[in-house]
Amino acid sequence: MSSLSRPSPQTSGCSMTPSRCNTTPASTKLFLHPGALTPILDNSLNPGLLAIADLSGDSPELCVFSLEYGTLLRTLWLYGDLAPCRPCYAAGRALIATTTPDKPELFLLDVKGDGWILGTAQLPSDLSQAASLDAVHLKANEDEIAIFGAALAHPGQADDITLLLWRGIPPEDAQPAARLVLPLRMPDADTVTVTCSASLTTSSFVFSAYESVSDAINTKYSRLSVVRAIDINQDALALRWEAPPEALPGHVSRLVHVPDAHAVVVIGSQNARENAEENISLTFVAVLDDETGALRRREDIREVVRACRVVQGKVVCVWKNGEVSAVGILEFVQRGLPLRHADGAVATVRRAGVLDGAVVLLGEAGKVTVKSW
Questions:
Q1: Which of 4, 207, 342, 368 could form a disulfide with 197 if both were Cys (CB 3.0 to 4.6 A apart)?
Q2: Where in this protein does the record put region Disordered (predicted)?
Q3: Number of independent structural domains in the chain
């Protein structure tokens, strides 16, 4: 259970009815079942916001808070069940995948404003209605909205991905403006999910698809991620490049484009065991060339890592003992990560958060430490 408190009541306007967009203030918001979605955090807005999914009631809700005060700004009620894929977020709007008894849908939500569901993208009728619809990417600014989803066959039956594009805010039953079918790359893979994406240019993006063999134990031979760059050409989608599948065994959880280094940084995890024996969990960091997808470097970290992020053009890792390493992308490509973390383990960090220029460490007995880097 987690909670977010607020210093004083505050409400905001909403164009929907109270049953669908709740603006009733509360001194404390309890989350009985948080974690269904990766929280949305945006400190570029004024005021900044934090959006967290709540599964406590009969229907899921997205609760939007002020970062400055912790104030509950609004609650967006959603239909159906939330899909486990990561939500896509851009310019105050969120793209979230849901599953209803009738069909899977993508909801375009007004997170920063006072609206509710701006539009829905639905699985086209000519595709298998047993398929899921994952949120892949959202392009949103003052002039243009582009929604990208992926139709994925039922687990155990997948052999490709159908990438879909909707332009603008789609009305009900709107057909996608473009499609692109992408094959699976792992031999015998029959399950695939989309895990994350990032913008490359104004007309391209990169995303990761996690492929697995559903009836195989989790080893480096039965799980891999395929990272692809996609070009958006008017109402057409085209594959720009595909990273070598053998370069990224494991689950990719984060993609970050660093233009100054001409790099896409990939962060993920892997079970490196060879068979059914003891698990060998590791974190990995890889750098791909943003023009070709070629692998420039991959580092496997077998020590326990509490956080690994790309901040201000650096790879920042926080180790279990509280040590922090921060290395520039080009230096990482040349030399990898520093190994000082192995020395002098005097503390155990349970959780860590990475900020611009600092990390916040939560240690034993609730001790909180802030370190600069």
A1: 207
A2: 1-21
A3: 1
